[in-house]
Amino acid sequence: MAEFVGDDLRGSRFEGVDLAGSRFRRITLNGAEFRATDLIDARFHGVDLSGAVLRGARLEGVDIYGELGTLTINGVEVSGYVNAELDRRYPERAAMRPVDADGFRRAWDVVERLWTGTVERARRLDPALLHESVDGEWSFIETLRHLVFATDSWIRRVILGDPSPWDPLDLPWDEMPDTPGIPRDRTVRPGLEVMLSLRRDRMATVRRVMDGLSDETLNGHTEPVEAPGWPASFSFPVRECLLCILTEEWEHRLYAERDLQILESG
After folding, report:
1. In what helix (H) or strand (E) does residue 113 lie, and over which residues does it extend?
2. How confident is the model at residue 64 (pLDDT cuts 50, 70, 90)?
3. 22 to each of 25, 133, 260, how far by Cα in Å?
4. What is the CB-side half-sphere exposure of residue 172 using CA atoms within 13 A?
5. Residue 218 confidence (pLDDT)
6. How far is the CA of 226 from the CAs of 179, 223, 232, 242, in angstroms?
7. What CATH number is given for 98-265 in this structure?
8. What would the mean pLDDT of 79-95 be, rounded to a whole number?
9. d(Cα 227, Cα 40) in Å, to the nearest integer?
């Protein structure tokens, strides 16, 4: 089996090559061209397909879950239809697009309420199942760990200015490069109550930020944090940081609900 790690293969040509079962991780394929290529049962996770063009493609049984901007299929722009249907299925989803400080507070009310129900659902399961992965996705416990990481990064570091806010149980997204000072231990198995205690602390921090938010501060920018870590030491729009947290909380709760249903069914 050939291995290419850290190699510069720009401009390479692959033709008549069997790459079935290959694994591509942290790969740059900007501007690549695929012709007469078989991608049956391929899986894409954490990929950026912005600007991708598919011609003569066959899509059957395809499952796409991600952030949709403009998406045109057979000449029809469909993202509006998709977003409208999601709003219909989840009436609270519209609250995740607030425009002023009061709207952000109401959005966080929704997040707290919905997660309370999801946690109660998780409590009814065998604790061992909360460490189980469904279809290769994060377990329920890992999802909680990732949300702590998101809060530590966007709220405690970027907005509140803590240069190193991370807890040892924080879990970055899988594709994030190893970064000094940021933990990413996938082997630990903290119990539910341990994680809920950490989550309560971080959610209370977000609540304090939301409660103290004004329209003026919402439309302002953060001060760069002059220390290594993630996000990088830039000034960010406060609105962008808070929207990121709302999106993380909303989407990962849906993932958790989806997987809890499967775990409940055995």
Report:
1. helix 101-123
2. confident
3. 10, 22, 30
4. 17
5. 98
6. 15, 9, 9, 21
7. 1.20.120.450
8. 94
9. 44
- Report the pLDDT value the prediction gives residue 9, as an integer from 0 to 100: 82
Do 228 and 181 form a contact (C-beta atoms < 8 A)?
A: yes
Interval 242-262: pLDDT, tens? 999 999 999 999 999 999 999
Q: What is the dihedral of CA 124, 130, 133, 138, to 10 degrees?
A: 110
Amino acid at 138: W
Amino acid at site 237: P
The rounded distance, in Å, linking the Cα atoms of 113 and 95 is 13
User: Do residues 102 and 224 make contact, with C-beta atoms less than 8 angstroms apart?
Assistant: no
Contacts of residue 18, defined as CB under 8 A and 6 or more positions apart, other chains included, come to: none
The answer to whether 255 and 134 have CB atoms below 8 angstroms apart is no
Q: Does the N-terminal peptide bond of residue 168 adopt cis geometry, omega within 30 degrees of 0?
A: no
Percent of the residues in the chain that have a pLDDT greater than 90, as a whole number: 68
DSSP output for 26-91: S---TT----S---TT----S---TT----S---SS----S--SS-EETTEE-HHHHHHHHHHH-G
**pTM beyond 0.70:** yes
Can you tell me the distance from the alpha carbon of 70 to that of 145, in angstroms, rounded to the nearest whole number? 31
Q: What is the pLDDT of residues 209-234, one digit of tens each?
A: 999 999 999 999 999 999 999 999 99
Q: CA dihedral in degrees (27, 28, 33, 34; nearest 10)?
A: 20
- CB distance 163 to 229 below 8 Å: yes
Q: What is the pLDDT of residue 11?
A: 85
166 in Cβ contact with 182 (< 8 Å):
yes
Map tokens 């290594």 to a residue. 228
